[in-house]
């Protein structure tokens, strides 16, 4: 991926500053969190998880960015996703989405528009799944990440054991992205906020070990709200982790974020 290339270049330039920003050692984890507690925290922020709440002509725009150590935040790409068609039955939800993508690299911007067919098999929230085109990179749908974290994470068992720690959940007032202010009845556009929940936790992936034999530790930060269209309810998700750069024999700290910077509700039906 492009951000892996950027990580390598940055680490070669700034090796001496790596790992100073945050200590991700496993010495201060505290007790493991019961998976149901994470489900409750995320679910309270997201609201009802129901594919039927995805509406035709709903729109979301997601910005993918990264920050290496104390460097400036760098935008990598943006995707604008519009639900073009919906077929809904008892077994599956089929969506056609139009994806307008902008990619930023070397001071240049490339643009593309692709129509994606997506099929969501119905079942329990934990077993719902999506079918995508073979050998292709699907559009960024952050509610799928929510689904994976809320209904399938922190289980210290099986082939992929992991544990979660330091769970916090905070009610906040989240400032509406400037491009989406018209979607809310705000008296002052400069002071337009919606209720949201900020959830943070550390995940220890015991099946993924670094070269020192330590399990991978990732810090998650999510901002969620049910007061926006379904595709945008994960308003922001960031991960912070240490990455090994084999080319430089070095470890670096990186923050990777997906942030909703625009959304539109589907038009009301008569």
- Radius of gyration of CA atoms, rounded to a whole number: 19 Å
Which stretches of 5+ consecutive residues score pLDDT under 50?
1-22
Structural class: mainly beta
Encode the helix/strand succession as letters. Answer: HHEEEEEHEEEEE
The average pLDDT value, as a whole number, equals 84
Assign an overall shape. globular
Helix % is: 10-25%
For the termini, the CA-CA separation is 45 Å
The biggest beta sheet reads: 10 strands, antiparallel
Number of separate strands: 10
Q: What percent strand?
A: over 45%
Strands across the major sheet, in which order? Answer: 5-4-3-2-1-10-9-8-7-6
Count of individual helical segments: 3
Task: Provide a brief overview of the structure.
This protein has three helices and ten strands. With 270 residues, the protein is mainly beta. It has a domain at 2-51 and 62-73 and 141-264.
């Amino acid at each position: 991926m492009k951000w892996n290339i950027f990580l390598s270049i940055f680490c070669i330039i700034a090796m001496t500053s790596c790992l100073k920003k945050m200590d991700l050692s496993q010495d201060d984890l505290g007790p493991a969190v019961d998976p149901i507690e994470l489900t409750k925290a995320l679910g309270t922020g997201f609201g009802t998880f129901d594919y039927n709440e995805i509406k035709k002509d709903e729109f979301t725009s997601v910005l993918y960015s990264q920050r290496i150590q104390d460097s400036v935040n760098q935008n990598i790409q943006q995707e604008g996703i519009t639900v073009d068609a919906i077929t809904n039955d008892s077994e599956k939800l089929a969506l056609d989405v139009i994806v307008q993508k902008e990619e930023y690299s070397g001071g240049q911007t490339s643009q593309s528009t692709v129509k994606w067919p997506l099929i969501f098999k119905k079942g329990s929230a934990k077993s719902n799944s999506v079918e995508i085109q073979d050998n292709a990179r699907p559009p960024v749908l952050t509610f799928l990440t929510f689904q994976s974290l809320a209904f399938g994470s922190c289980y210290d068992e099986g082939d992929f054991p992991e544990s979660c720690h330091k769970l916090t959940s905070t009610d906040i007032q989240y400032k509406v992205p400037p491009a989406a202010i018209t979607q809310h009845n705000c008296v002052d556009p400069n002071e337009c906020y919606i209720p949201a929940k900020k959830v943070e936790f550390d995940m220890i992936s015991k099946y993924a070990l670094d070269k020192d034999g330590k399990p991978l530790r990732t810090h998650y930060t999510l901002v969620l709200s049910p007061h926006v269209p379904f595709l945008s309810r994960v308003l922001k998700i960031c991960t912070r982790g240490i990455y090994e750069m084999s080319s430089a024999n070095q470890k670096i700290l990186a923050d990777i974020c997906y942030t909703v910077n625009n959304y539109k509700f589907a038009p009301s039906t008569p």
